[in-house]
Each structure stands twice: as structure tokens, then as C-alpha cells.
Amino acid sequence: MTTNPQSRTQWLGRWGFILAATGSAVGLGNIWKFPYITGEFGGGAFVLVYLACILAVGVPVMMTEIALGRRGRGSPIDAIRRVVGESGRGSAWSLLGWMAMLCGFLILSFYVVVAGWSFSYLWKMLSGGLAGSSVEEMAAIFGANNESPLNLGFWSTLVTVATMVIVGKGVQAGIEKSVSWMMPGMVVMLLVLIVYGMFSGGFGDALRFLFSFDAGSLSSEGMLAALGHAFFTLSLASGAILTYGSYLPARASIARTTLTVALADTLVALMAGLAIFPVIFANGMSPSSGPGLIFMSLPLAFQAMPLGTLFGILFFVMLSMAALTSSISMVEATVSWLCDNKGFSRRTASWGTGIVLWLVSTLAMLSFNVGADWTLAGKHFFDWLDYLTARWMMPLGGLGMVLLAGFVLKSETFREELGLSAGWHALWLFMVRYVSPLGILVIFVDALGITRVDFALHWPWLLAVLVVITLVGELTSPRLRRVLCP
Ligand code: PHE
After folding, report:
1. What broad class describes the main subcellular location of this protein (predicted)?
2. DSSP, res 246
3. Which residue's alpha carbon is nearest to atom 7 within ligand 1?
């Protein structure tokens, strides 16, 4: 049984989609990962490359996903099947939808564990569990938090339940309502932290750390990290954006919407950097890597400042909210597929998904304690989930999506959905046909270990390849000729 796509729920307010999609995009990826990798891969130079990746790959892929969702008015599987059917192509392309749905689900199974850290630290802040601790004690607290499966399991279960409660309430009452206060609230809290940072004495160092341009620090690894992070941070190829797009009213402009979300996501990432690093530098700490950055150093820094507990509470409330608005978007594809195809109510679909999710995420959570030794090829379950989704499923899904849009579907589909002027449409087509696929293929070449593509060194070659494949592609494609010579 498939419900009528025309009667599909839509976002209530003008800002419904933008808030929800921004809520999905802005998450743990922005708040701890972006500032840290920016520092590691060359500061300002990395930021520039990251911005280029967002524009050249992220924005075209996001526009494609929203257009597919709105055109197909369904979960990724149903939407892609419908849109492909419209162009008279085989339904095998709906495999892309299956992969996206699975990808969102798998990301969430480890994301709830990290979000659980955030919730547990909020509790520690509130209950005074972090008071008076030294650097060593902080590290021990972080370790102890992970060591007990009951403790860690409690927090990730809480995140799972919260996610499912919101998703179960539905698109308008659950998702739209919650993000409409969570997102602005988060921005306000970030601003408060930035203003505090300005007076903390570490602001100048933070600015230098984030925006100093050192071209020599542009490594191939940094470029690849920037490209990979562009996918993750914009929630692409994981069903989230496509499904949210399926609730987008017909009159909304996809290009404008996409640019707004991408800009908001980037601004929040930069703001997070400006909020976090002054605190780190003012307290004489060095920006350390990964989860440690926030969970070990920040509580310590908050203790050293006036009103630190209050700021610490604000910070972890903000991080937990950002994580939650991303979590809900990761299961929306699955829940909407179950409702449309299996006749489940939203509530039943949410709880059913939640139970399976809980089982998988419990396995991921055990990687930090009793299951630390259950490894395969040196990675435990948590790492495998991260590796499979970020390294393989997202780039592969993104590649499929742009190839589908660029070469398989009738050009009217996107001409109508995107509603761009001829010039902008040609630019979008050039991006999805050549620039985005080439960029994604470079990630694969690197991931497969075939060769390290050193962008700083090889960019003339890459440019030449781009020109050649564009020429070959355009000469052999009668459709683009029609676009260019209407
Ligand atoms: N964009 C989210 C973040 O930056 C993560 C995410 C990935 C959300 C995939 C939805 C889908 O944390």
C-alpha cells in the first residue's frame, strides 16, 4: 500500500523546511569536528577549500536531493522510483534510496552514542559532577563515563527515546515545532558564548587559529577531509534532506532554500569555532583532537571562568539540541517509508524503528567498554559504522544521485523542479554532471589507496581531466545540446 503522494504532509510555515534542514545539517559535525579539523588541516586555507567543496559539490547535490524528494513526494525509495519512472527508466535506481535510508539509520546508530556523551555532560554540569576537577581528573571522568555500559547505555537510550518521541509526533507537531525553537535558541547561545569569548583574552588567538591563511599547509589529506566533511555536515546522501524535501511546498525555491541552509550550516560551524577556541586559548590549553576537545577540556575551561557553570550548561544544552535536531532527520526516511508502504501509524513506525536502532546502537555503545576487543580488521563496531557511512555510503550515494540527475533523468524534471533561469540551470547541470562526480571520484581513489591525489600538486591535471570529460560528455549528449541551443 502506498499513500497518495499528492496528499503528503507539508511544512506548515515558510521557515519550516529551512529550520528543519538547518537543524539536520547543524550537529556534532559542526560544533566539535569542524573547528578541530580546521585547525589540524591548515586553518584559513582549509576553510577556503571547505567553502569551495560546499559550493561545488554540497550545494548541487543538496539541490538535486531536495528536487528528487519534492518531485517524488515520498521516502527516498519511493521518491526516486517515481521520478525515475516518470523518465521511463528502470526501478533499479531506487537502490540509491535504499542505500540512503540505510545510511541515515547506520549513522544514527553511532551518533546517539556521541549525543549521549553530550547529554551526560549536561547532567554532570547541572549536578556539579565536574566541579573542582584537574586535567587528569577530567580525562578520568571521560574514561569512566565510557567504561560503564550501564551509564553510557542509559544516555544513548535516552537520546534514542527522545528522537523517536519527536519523530513519532509527526512532521508538523514533532519536527517542525521542536526545531522552530531549538535552532534560534542555539544561535542565541552561540552568540552569548562568542561575546563571552571576546572578553576572555583568547579571542585573538582563536581568530588566528581559525582564519590564518597558510597556503603551505594545504595537504591532499586536508582537501579530502574538507570534501568528506561537506557531505556529512550537509546531511547529504543519507535520506535526511531528500525526505525533508518531500514535504517542501511546490512554490518554495529550491536554489534559495539550499543556499540558505548551506550558509546557515557554515556560519554555525564558524561561530562554533569562535565560541570554542577563545575558551581553549584563554585557559592555556592546546586544541586537542576529537571528542576529547569538548568533553575533556571545555568543562575544565568553564570552571576557570566567572559564571562558568552557567556557560557550561548553556554549551551542553546547545550541543545536545544540535545533536537531537540532526538525529531526528536521520530516521525520518525510514519512518516515512514504513508509514507509506507498510500502513503503520507514525507512532508505531517510530517505536519499531527505535527498537531496532536501540539494538544496533547498543552494540556501538559496547565498543567503548565490554566490546572494546570485538574488532574486525582493527576497527570495533562503532568505528565500522562511521567508516562505512562516511567513507563509502555517502560518497557513493552522492555520486549516484548526481549521475541520475545529470545523465539519466529527463531534463524537464529538474528544469521544472528547480525553476532556474537558463544560465543558472546550465551551471547546475555542469556541476552535477562533471564537477561533483569528479570531486567524489577523487575521494574514492584516495579511499581505495590507489594513489594519493595531492591537490596542491595535481590541480592542473585535475582541471585538464575536468575539461576533457566535460567536452566528451557534452559532445556525446544530445540532451545538453538541447539545453544549450534551445
Ligand atoms: N549533518 C549532521 C552533523 O553535522 C550529521 C548528519 C549526517 C545528519 C547525515 C543527518 C544525516 O552533525
Report:
1. membrane
2. T
3. 235
Q: What is the pLDDT of residue 310?
A: 86
What integer pLDDT is reported at residue 334 of this predicted model?
94
Indicate the pTM of the whole model: 0.88
> What is the distance between the alpha carbons of residues 465 and 210, in angstroms, rounded to a whole number?
32
What pLDDT digit, counting tens, does each position of 360-414 carry? 999 999 999 888 888 888 888 988 998 888 778 888 899 999 999 998 898 889 9
CB neighbour list of residue 31: distance below 8 Å, 6 or more residues apart: 268, 269, 272, 276, 294, 318, 319, 322
Q: Residue 223 corresponds to which cell in the numbers above?
A: 582537501
What number of residues does the chain have?
486
Is 361 a pocket residue for ligand 1 (Cβ < 6 Å)? no
Determine the average pLDDT of the residues in 424-432.
93
pLDDT at 298: 75
Cβ distance 401 to 64 under 8 Å? yes
Rounded CA-CA distance 158/227 in Å is 32
Q: Pick the residue with more confidence: 133 or 269? A: 269
Residue 238 CB less than 6 A away from ligand 1: yes
Whether 232 lines ligand 1, by a CB cut-off of 6 Å, is yes
Structure confidence by residue, pLDDT tens digits, 450-475: 666 666 677 788 788 888 888 888 77
> Please, are residues 394 and 235 in contact by the beta-carbon 8 Å criterion?
no
Q: What is the mean pLDDT of residues 150-176?
A: 87
CATH architecture of 5-484: Up-down Bundle (1.20)
- CB of 239 shorter than 6 A to ligand 1: no
The answer, yes or no, to whether any atom of ligand 1 lies below 6 A from the CB of 170, is no
- Dump the DSSP string for 9-45: ---SSTTHHHHHHHHHHSSHIIIIIHHHHHHHTTBHH
Q: Distance, CA 200 to ligand 1 centroid (Å)?
A: 31
Query: What are the pLDDT digits (tens) for 281-291?
Result: 877 776 655 55
Residue with the three cell numbers 527515546? 161
Nearest-10 Cα torsion for 185, 188, 194, 196: -100
**Dihedral pair phi/psi, residue 155, rounded to 5°:** -70, -40
| Residue bearing the CA closest to ligand 1, atom 12 | 27
Kindly tell me if the per-residue pLDDT of 65 is higher than 80.
yes
